[in-house]
Amino acid sequence: MSDRITEALGLKSRPFGKEISPDLLWMDNGRSEAVDRLLDTVTHRQHALVTGEPGVGKTTVLRALRHRLSPTGFNVVYIAHVTLGKRDFFRQMCIALGVAPKATPAAMFEAIQRECVHSAAERRAHTVVVLDEVQLMPDSTMSQLHVLANFEWDSDPLLSLVFVGLPELHGKLRMGIHRSLLTRIHTKVELSPGTPELTAAYVRHRLTDAGARTELFTGDGLAVLHEETGGLLRSIDVLAQASLRLAVAEDTKLIDRDLVRRALHHTPLA
Ligand SMILES: Nc1ncnc2c1ncn2[C@@H]1O[C@H](COP(=O)(O)OP(=O)(O)OP(=O)(O)O)[C@@H](O)[C@H]1O
Ligand SMILES: [Mg+2]
Which residues pair with 163 in a beta bridge? Predict the structure, then answer.
C-alpha cells in the first residue's frame, strides 16, 4: 500500500507495521534459540512458559514457532482471550479445537480430551494450545489447568500447553495454588529487550523488508531510538514510525538524534 511515507522515502511498503508474514520475521540469536527450544519442547509433548516485558516480541515468537511446526504433525490453536471464568474458558477452548461446546465444564473437559485423542489417533497430530496473556487469567480458571496439563492416553501426553505472559506470570505460577501446574512445565523461555546493536539490526531489517535501499537512520539516531524504547520492539515500531513521519514532514531523508528526540513528543513514549 502506497502512502505519503512510502512515496516520499521510496519504499515499497510501510515499515514497522504489525502485519508481517512469518517468513519475514526478524530472528536474532535469542529468538532463534527460543523458537528451537519451544520446538523441542512441543515435539517431546511437553509444556512451556514464555515470559517477557510488553512488546518484547512474545506473541511473534509463537507465530514463528507455529510456522516451523508441520501442519500435519501438529494441531496448533491459539487462545488470546483468557480473562474468563472456568466455564467460558473451556467453551473458548472447545471452539478453538473445533468441538461443539457443552453445558458444563466437566462435559467440555471430556470433549476436549476426546478431541485430543482423536487428533493423535486418527491424524497423528499432537495438539498444542498456546494461551496468551495468561497473567490476566483468573486464579479460579488457572487452577483447572493442571488437569489439562496432565492429559494422557496410554501414558502418552496428549496436549502441550504453552503459557505466554508478562514476567509476573512466573511469580503467579509460583503461588501455592498453582505450584502443581508449575511443576508440570518443562521449559521456560524468557525474552529480554535487546542491546543497542540489536535495536539497530531490527530497524535495518524492517526497513530493508520495506524496500529501503539507503540507511535512513544515522548511528546516533538509532542510539536514541534504543535509549528511549529500552529495546522493546513494539516501542521501537512506534518511535521509528513517528520519526519517518516527521522526516517526511520536514522533507529530509536523514533521521538523526535530534529528529528522533523531536518525534518522541509525537508518541506516548515521551
Ligand atoms: N521477530 C520479529 N520480527 C519483526 N517484528 C517483530 C518481531 N517481534 C516483534 N515484532 C514487532 O513488535 C511488535 C510487538 O511484538 P509482540 O506483539 O510479539 O510482543 P508481545 O511481547 O507479545 O507484547 P505483549 O506483552 O503486549 O503481548 C509486533 O507487532 C511487531 O511489529
Ligand atoms: Mg503478546
Answer: 49, 131
Helix (H/G/I), strand (E/B), else coil: 82: coil
pLDDT tens per residue, range 83-102: 999 999 999 999 999 999 99
Residue type, 38: L
Tell me the mean pLDDT in the region 217-234: 97
Q: pTM higher than 0.85, yes or no? A: yes
Q: Are 189 and 153 spatial neighbours (Cβ–Cβ below 8 Å)?
A: no
Which value, in Å, is the radius of gyration of the alpha carbons in the chain? 21
| Cβ contacts of 12 within 8 Å, gap of 6 or more | 6, 210, 211
Nearest-CA neighbor of 56 among 199, 176, 197, 223?
199
User: Quick one: 163 and 89 in the same domain?
Assistant: yes
Q: Which residue has the cell 461446546?
A: 101
The H-assigned helical ranges of 150-232 are 168-174, 179-182, 196-209, 219-229
Around ligand 1, the residues with Cβ closer than 6 Å are: 18, 20, 25-26, 31, 52, 54-60, 233-234, 237
> What is the best residue among 61, 134, 233, 238 to mutate for testing ligand 1's pocket, by most ligand atoms within 8 Å of CB?
233
Q: Of the candidates 165, 191, 217, which is a domain's last residue?
A: 191
Domain range enclosing 114: 29-191
